[in-house]
Design goal:
The chain has 440 residues and is α/β, with parallel strands linked by helices. The protein contains 9 helices and 25 strands. Helix 3 runs parallel beside helix 4.
């Protein structure tokens, strides 16, 4: 019996001891209860939450003619719907919009390198402006060289990157002396609900900044070098670059023919309608559609801007005239056979060497002589048997005159065929003259 009472006593003491231990530990570690800090009273009038507002913008653009080319051949990391505000404004100015490459149902597709290079060369011959936006496949050097020559001839180039999306935009940009830098810009003092949604008010006077008071970029980065068109304020910093100088998300380069923008989000609806973003997009559309690019013989037939008159050196060349008319029609260039030259109209002259006197003024300006030999400033004298000559003359007001001469009717037909197939480019001796050895 005493043994049983002892075990019972131990059972009663165990929970009492455990409770004492826990209570002691609590008293040892307890540092006091939570005391709320005093309430800070802020006047309602001093609370400022900056947000971007919708700015009404209506325009009446001037109609123009031209073609805007958009790259989708380098696995470009965007959707066409994101560019709808820009594309609609370009179209409203009378420009046609074409694409370099095609997209499959899974997104952008990229053709093989040689195919892509040939496609780029062909499409840029007719383009007045060209956009490279977020290319995930880097441009090859040969492709960049083609773009550089295009810009040198006055073609407009738009380059767009975005810090939130992978791209190889610098594979093109660095050729023109600018670099899209790593990191994004942010402002914790003033922003549109998020510190990466930055306001910009500092604009260099330029056609691209005309009428702007404030724009909003939603994922912007900094572009190094070039002419800074839009710069940040002193409260804006980069996530990767340690400096206090202003950053430039919008620049010009390439003697003004290249526009670089390090943000795509500002033109995506509904952001395109906030602050002065719509006006900025309209200014970009103007930049893309008001250039004056020059053309060379290699660009045949895209240097013709309207209906073309076809003149014949003699009536026996009528078949060559109809062949040229059909050729131009394949490029959607209307033409008519005429008997008299109109000095205000784009013109093609088809003739034999004996008809050269009819276009002597154009041959003389190019310092070309046609007789038993063909003499040009770029070649030694060439015997005229089984040969052909092509000359592009660019007159005042943008008038284009293409002169096609052969030693025989057969040679003339062969030249028209070469123009259609693109083979004439292998015989170019200058930007405006081609001389060819032909089989009669």
């Amino acid at each position: 019996m005493p043994f049983r009472l002892g075990k019972l006593w131990l059972l009663l003491l165990f929970p009492v001891g455990a409770g004492a231990f826990i209570g002691g530990a609590y008293l040892f570690f307890y540092q006091g209860g939570y005391r709320a800090p005093p309430t800070v009273r802020v006047q309602f009038e001093s609370i400022v939450v900056p947000t971007a507002s919708v700015a009404g913008f209506v325009e009446a653009p001037t109609p123009r003619e031209g073609m805007f080319l958009l790259d989708v051949a380098h696995s470009n990391n965007f959707d066409e719907a994101e560019l709808s505000p820009l594309l609609s404004r370009v179209a409203s100015r009378g420009y046609t919009i074409e694409f370099l490459g095609e997209r499959d149902h899974g997104g952008a597709s990229s053709p093989p390198g040689r195919v892509r290079l040939a496609l780029l060369e062909e499409k840029l011959r007719e383009a007045d402006s060209f956009a490279v936006i977020l290319p995930q496949d880097a441009y090859a050097k040969e492709e960049v060289d083609v773009i550089e020559r295009y810009v040198e001839k006055g073609g407009r180039l738009l380059l767009i990157g975005d810090p939130s999306r992978h791209d190889h935009i610098n594979s093109v940009a660095e050729e023109f002396g600018i670099t899209f830098q790593d990191g994004f810009l942010y402002n914790v003092v003033e922003h549109d609900l998020n510190y990466r949604n930055i306001f910009l008010r500092d604009f260099l006077p330029n056609e691209l900044t005309q009428g702007l008071g404030r724009i909003t970029l939603y994922t912007a980065g900094s572009i190094q070098s070039g002419v800074s068109l839009v710069t940040t304020d002193g409260n804006t910093y980069s996530s990767m670059i340690q400096r206090t100088a202003p950053f430039a998300p919008v620049v010009k380069a390439g003697d003004g023919g290249v526009l670089g923008i390090f943000d795509i989000t500002f033109m995506i609806p509904p952001q395109d309608a906030l602050t002065d973003n719509a006006r900025f997009i309209a200014n970009i559309a103007d930049f893309l559609t008001n250039g004056q690019r020059s053309f060379e013989l290699v660009d045949f037939p895209h240097f013709f801007s309207g209906p073309v008159d076809i003149l014949l050196g003699q009536s026996s060349l009528f078949p060559a005239g109809t062949a040229m008319k059909s050729l131009l029609l394949t490029f959607e260039t209307p033409s008519e056979l005429r008997g008299v030259e109109d000095l205000l109209q784009d013109t093609v002259f088809l003739g034999l060497y004996e008809d050269a006197r009819d276009v002597a003024q154009y041959l003389s300006l190019a310092r070309i002589q046609v007789g038993e030999t063909i003499r040009t400033p770029f070649t030694p004298a060439i015997p005229s048997d089984s040969t052909g000559l092509v000359l592009l003359h660019q007159g005042q007001g943008g008038r284009q005159v293409l002169i096609v001469l052969g030693d025989t009717e057969s040679s003339l037909h062969r030249l028209v065929e070469l123009l259609g197939a693109g083979g004439f480019r292998t015989g170019l001796v200058s930007d405006s003259v081609g001389v060819y050895r032909l089989n009669s």
